[in-house]
Amino acid sequence: MTQPHDVEFASEQYQKWLVALKDEAMLATLNQAQAMMRAVMEELRDSVSDDDAMAIANALPALARGIMLEGWRPGVEKKVIASPEDFHQRLVSRLEPHQPPPDGLAAAVLAVWRRGLSSEKARALSDRLPAALRPLWPA
Length: 139
Known about the structure:
The chain has helices at residues 5-24, 30-45, 50-59, 62-69, 84-95, 105-116, 119-126. The chain is an all-alpha fold.
């Protein structure tokens, strides 16, 4: 059975992003990379306005967008990100049943996104990041 090009491309691209995150964050497995990529996506989604969450998700490729928005409940009170360290502690809590994330996990995910997106999509995404996470966005 053939797959639409967008679906096939999204799967290949997301796999490449997981490999890149595994290398960037020095993780042992792609399973860890997936759990940690998802944790960053979900924590970010739950920390920004609904409009910002949609803008960030729309900057991502189809598969990553679906993963980010899966289980999302728009309109729920948002958790303000006070600092990169605060965000990291939330990632630790989210990933507690698994291995703890490396200290630079959020920066590693943002680096993978920056390299994997067009400049237009990267700009659209970085413009919607919370102020506390903007210093983690690669130049």
